Amino acid sequence: MKRFYPYFGYLAQVKGTFLAGVLSGILFAIISGYGMPALVEKVFPLIFGSPRVEEVRQVLGEAKGSQEEGDKLMEAAFPKSIEKFERTNKTRLWVEEHVGKEHAWMATLVIACALIPIVALLRGIAGFMNTYLVTAAGLHVLREIQQSVFDKLQRLPLSFFTQRRTGELISRVISDSNMLQGVVTTISNDLIKQPFTLIGALTYLGIQSYKNKESFFLLICLLSIPVAALPVRLLGKRLMRKAAAMQREAGDNSAVLAETLGATREIRAFNLEQMMGKRFLDGIGRWTKFHLKVIKYRYMSPPAIEMISAAVVAAALGYAATRGFSLEQFLPLVMALYMSYDPLKKLGEIHNRMKQGEASLDRLETILNADEGATDPPNPVQIDKVSGAVRFEKVSFAYGDTPALHEISLDVPAGQVVALVGRSGAGKTTFASLLPRFYDPSEGSIHLDGVDLRELRLKDLRDHITIVPQEAVLFAASIFENIRLGRRNATEEEVKEAARQAHAHEFIMQQPQGYDTQVGERGAQLSGGQKQRISIARAFLKNAPVLILDEATSALDSEAESFIQQELADLTKGRTTFIIAHRFSTIRIADRILVFEQGRIVGDGTFQELEAKHEMFRALLEMQRH
C-alpha cells in the first residue's frame, strides 16, 4: 500500500471533484448498508404486515372465545409483529385523519410503495455521481501519470533507450499508466465508501440486537469475516505474478508491432510477413494465457466470499426459525447481514487490483526511478554571448563496461571547422555526443568558452548547438513547421530563406501544397535526400555558434551533394564545426582533421599534412578512392 502513496498526491489537484465523488459514495454506502434494511423493516409492514396480524388476532379470538384471550396468545407467539402492528396502526390512524377512513388503506399503500422508488432513486443518483466524479478525477490522475512518465523519458540519457525497445516503452506509458490510475482511484474511493457500507449494516444489526436479544446471534455470524479474507490473500499473491507476466507480454507485443510498422519495406523485401505474423501471434497467445490467469485469480475471491456469506445466512436462517422469528422480522436482518459481506467482497477486489497494480508500478518505476544522467546544475552559469571555443580535458567515457574514449585532451578555437575520421566504432559519434551532453564524461571535463558544460543549463547549452544527423528525422507536420523547429519564432520569410540556403526551396514549391505539404510520419512522403535538405535548412535557420554535421550529405546523390557543398561551407563560416565524416568528400572544407582509432585521437592536422605523413589516414583515403 505504501508504494502507492506518492501517486495519491495527483488527486490533490482535483480534490473538489474527488471529494464530491467520495461524499456521493458515502451517501450510497449509508443508503445501502442502513437504509435498505430499514426500508424493508418500516415499509413492508405497511404493505403486508398489519392486515395479516389483525386477521390472525380475530381468528385466535374466535377460537378461544374472546378477543382478549386471542390478544394474549398473539403477544406470546408474535411479540414483534404486535409491536410493528401498533406502529403501523398509528400510521394508518394519521392517514385516516387526513384523507378519510374510506381511502386510508389505499393512501397508506401508495405512500409505502412510493418510498421504495424514492429510496432507490436517491441510491441510484448517489451511485451515479460517485462513479462519474471519481472517474473524472481518475482521468486527471491518468493524464498526470502519463505526463510524468513522458517528461521523465525526455530527460533520460540515450543509453536508456538503446537498452529497451520502443514498443515496450509505449506499452508502459499507455497500458501500465492506465492500470496504475485505476488502482489509485479505486483504492481512494472504495477504501472510504465500502467501510461506510459495512458500518451502516453493522449499525442496523447492532440496534436490532439491542432491541431484541435474539438478534444478537447475527452479530456473532460476523466473526466469519476473517475466514472470508483468507482466499483474498492467497489469490492476491498469485495474481501479482501473473499480472507482471501479462504486462511484460503486452510490452513485447507492442515492440513487435512497432518494429513491423517501422520496417514495412524491409519486411516485404525479405518476405518476412509470415515470420513477423507468427512472432506477433505467438506473443498474443502468451498474453492471452496470462490474461486468463489474471482473470481467474482476480474473480475467484468474490465467489468464495459469496459462498461463505451464503453459509452464514443459512445458519442465521436456521437459528431464526428455531427462535420463532417471523419473515418480516428476519428479512431486514438478513439483508443487513448480507450488506456486511458485500463491502468485504469489494475490499477483496481492491486487494486484487492492488496486486495487479504493483506489477504495473514495477514497470513504470523502471522509468520514473531511472538515473537521468545529465541534469541541470543547482546554480547554472549564464553565458551572454557564445563564441564557440571548445576544450576537452582528459576526457574518458564508457558505455557500461565498454570503453569508448580514452583521456582525450583537445583545444578547438572558436570558428574552427574540425573533421572527425576513422573506422566504424572508433569513437567519432561518441565524441560529438558529449558536446550537447547526451552523455557526460566518465572522467575529465569539457568546456565551452571556458565554462564547464555541467555548469550550464541543458536548454541553454543546446540552444547554442545545432546538429544535422546522418538520418534526418522529420515529424508528422508540414514542411514549414519542420523547418521552423530550428527557431520556433522565425518568420515565414526566414524559413524560406533557410530552405533556399539548403537548396530545398525548389523541390518544396513543386509539392502539391508547397510549404504546407504534410510530410507524414518520419517524413514518409519525401525521399531521403529531400528529408536531409529540410534537416539542413533547419540548421541554417537555427544559426547556432556550434555545429555538428553527422555525415549530413550521406543521403544526397552526387549532383545534390556538389550543390550543397558550397552552402555547407557558408554555413560553417564563423561557427565552431565538427564534421563526422565517412565520405571524405565532405571533409575538404575542414580546417583541421582528427583521426580516431579505438577511442583515441591518433592523428591531428590538415588534409594535406595527414595525407603526406599519416599512414592510417592514407589507408582510409585509399579505401574511399576505391
Write the layout of secondary structure elements.
Blueprint: H1 5-8, H2 15-64, H3 67-77, H4 79-99, H5 104-155, H6 158-162, H7 166-211, H8 216-221, H9 225-262, H10 264-269, H11 273-322, H12 327-368, E1 390-399, E2 402-412, E3 417-422, H13 428-433, E4 443-448, E5 451-452, H14 458-463, E6 465-468, H15 479-484, H16 492-501, H17 505-509, H18 528-542, E7 546-550, H19 558-572, E8 576-580, E9 592-597, E10 600-605, H20 607-613, H21 615-625
Parallel strand pairs: 3-8, 3-9, 6-7, 7-8
Antiparallel strand pairs: 1-2, 1-4, 4-5, 9-10
Structure characterization notes:
There is one protein chain. The protein has 626 residues and is of the alpha/beta class. The chain folds into two domains: 2-368, ABC transporter type 1, transmembrane domain (ABC transporter transmembrane region fold, Up-down Bundle), CATH 1.20.1560; 390-625, P-loop containing nucleotide triphosphate hydrolases (Rossmann fold, 3-Layer(aba) Sandwich), CATH 3.40.50. Helix content is 66%, strand content 10%. α19 links the parallel β7 (546-550) and β8. α3 (67-77) packs across α4 (79-99) and α11 runs antiparallel to α12 (327-368).
